[in-house]
Structures are given as structure tokens and as C-alpha cells.
Amino acid sequence: MLYYGIRYSMVRIKSMDPQDDMEIRNLISRMAWLTDQWSAPEDLLAHCCMDYSWQIEGMPAYVGHEEIARRLKEMLDLGVCGPGLPTRHCVTSTEVLAQEHPDIAMVRSFVIMMSMDKGHPVALGYGEYHDELRRENRRWMMAKRYCVSFWTPPGKD
């Protein structure tokens, strides 16, 4: 099945090894933490394949470490997210889908972007992550992320 640019099977090909499942879930959580709290772009990039592709629906994809590092800095400069900003990516309802190839996994999650406004939590938006992970050198790495947005940014309605 091709879903939002990522090809994967919705049918359980086989059961995911519990250790792999845990490592993948932890990686998805770690990516959320690092999107908001990196010290240097390399903190996040250490968990990404060299050809990592990150795309938000309706925008061009950022591919490779150099483009991803640039995008992290752009988001910080725009006040969207990053170190020192109150935005937090909250990932939930994560489903890990084993694939035919044992070194590839697909993951679907919901994401809610939260922030603070005058001391009160506010939801800035929400959507879905569709991720492809690849095992390289016995370690799960992010290979591709496609973000589906369920909200309209201010000024775009």
C-alpha cells in the first residue's frame, strides 16, 4: 500500500520482535524530544539515515542531513519549535508495522503540538506521522517521515 508517499503493508506480515518494537517506539519518542530540545542539529541527526527525508504535507521534502539541519534552524528562527521555545511535540497512538524485510518497519502516530499562552497550555495543531525506519548496523534509524496536518495555520484559512 502507498500511503502519503510511504509504501507499506497494513497487514501484519509477521510479528515484530518485542525488542525491535520497543527500540522503534523509543526512537519515535526521542525524535519528538529532540525536535524541541536539541543542543545541536547533530543530536537529532544521529538518529537519522544519511538519506533521511522529512516532509510536511503540501511542502517540499528536506532530504539529507544538511537540509534537515537547515530546517531545524529555520524552525527555531521562526519561533515554531526548538531549544528555548515552549512548543512540545506530543506523539501518541503509535502503531509499529513489521514489514516483509526484517530491517524495515513502518510506524503511524498521531502528533499534537502543544505550547503555552499566558500560563495556559494550548494546542497549536495536530496531525499524523507516517514514518519509515531502517535498521543500519544493528540500530534502528529514521529513514523517512511524512507529516499530515489536520489544521490550517493562522492566516492560511
What does this structure look like?
The protein has one domain (14-149): Nuclear Transport Factor 2, Chain: A (Roll). Helix content is 24%, strand content 43%. It has helices spanning 18-37, 41-45, 65-77, and strands at 2-3, 6-7, 48-56, 62-63, 88-98, 104-117, 120-136, 139-149. The strands form two sheets. It has a six-stranded mixed sheet, covered by helices on one side. Strands 1-2 form a two-stranded antiparallel ribbon. A hairpin with a 2-residue loop joins strand 6 and strand 7. 21% of the residues are buried. The model has no long low-confidence stretch (mean pLDDT 90).
- Strand residue content: 35-45%
The CATH architecture name reads Roll
Kindly provide the radius of gyration, computed on alpha-carbon positions and rounded to a whole number of angstroms: 16 Å
Q: What is the highest CATH level, the class?
A: Alpha Beta
Count up the domains: 1
- N-C termini distance: 32 Å
Question: SSE layout and pairings?
Answer:
Layout: E1 2-3, E2 6-7, H1 18-37, H2 41-45, E3 48-56, E4 62-63, H3 65-77, E5 88-98, E6 104-117, E7 120-136, E8 139-149
Parallel strand pairs: 3-8
Antiparallel strand pairs: 1-2, 3-4, 5-6, 6-7, 7-8
